[in-house]
Specification:
The protein is of the alpha+beta class and 417 residues long. The chain is built from 5 helices and 17 strands.
């Protein structure tokens, strides 16, 4: 209508413009209620979606917590710090007296069982050994000479005694013959009624009797000499006893010479510092010279605070974080408690006195592998430890805390949930 008016009567332009504005206003007034309604509907839908999303998230979160609490274990631990040390330390002691002549090892050196550690001056023992060797040679020579002398004397005396026995037998027979002859002669004289004499007084009988007595005396002397040889044979036994004692003394001196070479009783690492400075020192029997740590058996000595020491028990698992081997690059070492403290130790830190208790932990695998290389732990390495005092599922721990909150405790076994 405005187009017709605008074309016929220009003066009516203002009227058409007014009519157009009124129509536009009426159209906008009619359309505005529909836009507000749509906005409200969309708002309600967004709120409902948000609430449903929150409910679903909460349900999923609770379900996740339940699943994790049922299947995931949690560890409660006591933290401590300390250092690495060997399980077994062994003092190497001198088994003989002497002056340390040469030291063949240094602090931190790894040695095998039987390796030479140091050598003592053996000159004094060697002099004693030479002296004993001379005495042994003299003793053996004396025994050999005495044995030969006795052998020849025995042969000589035995031969002379055999000869004297033959002479004695012959003299006896000769005496019997003379007596028989004199008896016949005296009987002959008696038959002729001539004077007779006693047989013992006859000169031939006397001479032969004297000869028999002389041979008898010589036999007795030879028998005495033969008996004397038995006594002299005891001298050989005495010399042998002296010789055996000298041999024992020589063996003892040789053992002392052998002990001047000090060897390692175990495979380990030298712990004694400045070991080179002991050259020239005089040591006696049983004097400790150096300290060794046994290989492949290492432990951690950690210090636990007084408030936590009652929670530590034998056999508890331990996680060890050795500073020299960062666990992000290598591994977390494992171990177990093998010794509880018998006494405390006061440590001064930041002008405060702390009461700590040393606990020993055996390290299961005291080394790390990097390719084909094996790197063992070393004495004195610093570490942090987590001693696991309790390991259980999350729901068990939560249930325990709830029971503790209400004062409910299992008296028979407080750790059973």
């Amino acid at each position: 209508m405005c187009d017709g008016l605008l074309g016929n009567r220009i003066e009516d332009y203002s009227l058409c413009a007014t009519l157009a504005r009124d129509q536009t206003s009426m159209a906008l007034a009619t359309k505005q209620p529909e836009s507000d309604h749509e906005i409200k509907l969309k708002g309600f839908e967004f709120i409902r979606f948000f609430i449903l999303s929150m409910i679903a998230s909460t349900i999923l979160l609770i379900a996740g917590v339940v699943v994790l609490g049922w299947d995931v274990e949690m560890e409660i631990s006591v933290e401590a710090s300390g250092h690495v040390e060997p399980v077994e330390k062994k003092f190497v002691k001198s088994e003989t007296m002497g002056t340390i002549e040469e030291v063949l090892i240094h602090a931190g050196q790894q040695v095998a069982k039987g390796d030479t550690l140091f050598i003592l001056d053996a000159s004094e023992w060697q002099k004693e050994a030479a002296k004993i060797e001379k005495e042994i040679a003299i003793n053996q020579r004396q025994r050999e000479e005495l044995r030969e002398t006795l052998f020849f004397d025995r042969q000589r005396i035995a031969s002379s005694l055999d000869q004297a026995r033959l002479e004695h037998e012959a003299s006896g027979l000769r005496l019997e013959q003379i007596l028989r002859e004199q008896q016949l002669y005296q009987q002959y004289l008696k038959e002729r009624e001539e004077r007779t004499l006693s047989l013992e007084t006859l000169l031939p009988v006397k001479l032969q009797q004297n000869n028999l007595n002389r041979v008898q005396q010589r036999m007795t002397y030879l028998e005495i000499e033969l008996d004397a040889l038995v006594v002299r044979e005891k001298e050989i036994q005495t010399l042998k006893l002296v010789g055996d004692k000298l041999l024992q003394e020589r063996d003892w001196i040789q053992e002392q010479i052998r002990k001047t070479v000090i060897i390692s009783p175990i495979a380990g690492i030298v712990l004694t510092s400045d070991i080179e400075t002991i050259e020239g020192d005089r040591v006696s029997v049983g004097s400790p010279v150096l300290e060794l740590a046994q290989l492949n058996k290492w432990q951690a000595r950690v210090f636990v605070q007084e408030v936590d020491i009652s929670k530590i028990e034998m056999g508890q698992d331990v996680k060890l974080y050795i500073h020299a081997f960062p666990h992000m690059n290598y591994k977390i070492f494992s171990g177990r408690v093998i010794e509880l403290p018998s006494r405390n130790q006061v440590v001064h830190q930041n002008a405060m006195a702390l009461t700590l208790y040393p606990v020993k932990i055996l390290i299961d695998e005291p080394f790390v592998r990097s390719g084909d290389q094996i790197y063992p732990v070393a004495y004195g390495m610093h570490l942090d430890a987590k001693i696991i005092i309790e390991r259980s599922f999350l729901w068990q721990i939560a249930w325990k805390k709830i029971k503790e909150a209400f004062g409910i405790v299992d008296k028979q076994n407080p750790l059973v949930f």
